[in-house]
What does this fold into?
Amino acid sequence: GRSTLTPRSVALHSVANGVAPGGANLKQSLPVRIFGNMRAAATAPGRLMKLGQITKDLVQEMRDRQKAKSGGDGEEDDKSEQKAAASSTLKAFLPSYIKSHVIARTEPEAFRHFLNTTLNVILDSIGAKEGYDFQPYHKAVRGPGVDFYAWGNDFFRSMVKFRQSRVEGVEHLETIQEALAAGDNVVFLANHQTEADPQVLSLLLESQGVEDLAEKTIFVAGHKVTTDRLAIPFSMGRNLLTIFSKKYLDTFSPEEKEVKSARNQKTVSEMQRLFQEGGHVLWVAPSGGRDRRTGNGGTRFEPAKFDEQSVGLFCLLGQKAEKASGKKTRFFPLAMWSHKLVPPPEGAQAAVGESRSATRAPIGLEFGPELVPEEVGGRKGMPQAAEAAVRRQYDHLDALLR
It folds into this structure.
């Protein structure tokens, strides 16, 4: 049930362009790899200087362009604080990001092209007067101009230690693909660790030759990733069902809470429509938020508690869809190990505009066998069964990757 990563489909478009081609080197023999690593270590300082200078030049170009665009009027709006926080985070993030491309041996011209696109995309998001208008059901923006799905994957590619990463439970992928081909729906009941989890799913499924599964996946996404200026471009590249998590609804005023709750109802109606249509794959984190470290000052992450009503809702929607259209909904537990990539902030709740850090790290997925509601106590038994399955899978991944 375990899989070491292969280069079967590791971003062919990216490798061809020289962007973070580390994943394509997985098939190299040990002597070739050792020689390549020695050569890379010897040339790393020079490559760091070169990529650093490219970054400096591009950032200055962007500043000049932004200044000319605004006319230097210094006009502020009600989002100026969030924009300033996003700009500060981007500035702090760049040094570690450059190093990840040095280690991944990204070609300088490929780095220049990719970073130019990245700065344009992110600075356009930061500088926009209004955020992107996400509908209850958002389809990935794949062009023209920018393929936000591919760009988001490429952004994190250089930060992944592919050789140390793991995909477990690969035997269940065939069952999942067969279910979708038959017109059934598939729901991944998952834990959630970083904002990059959609890209983690894509990058690791690419390694198994089933990137199409990641491309089709619809993520149930909370308001933070659809309103935070740095997160918006990455969210634009994914299929989303946008919600306001119950965990955060009480942070809004009574009037806002009423509006957000009404919006959630529209999203639930879209879910029901998709389930009745059949052949869709959804990813949901029933905890309603990201995992956190255990205990005071603990270093280990563990899956957050699943919300019983959230799991029950998906079971109910699946049952209704089967009665209405004959389309079945099948549930699979999915453990995700990704917290080292973009660690979540301390505390139970995250804020829009939160600071971020990133490190080059291994990542992991573990797919579990199908959970059949009737076999685990129906809608009442599913939440506990799903959470227990994800915790078992996560513990196994954690033992392999820590």
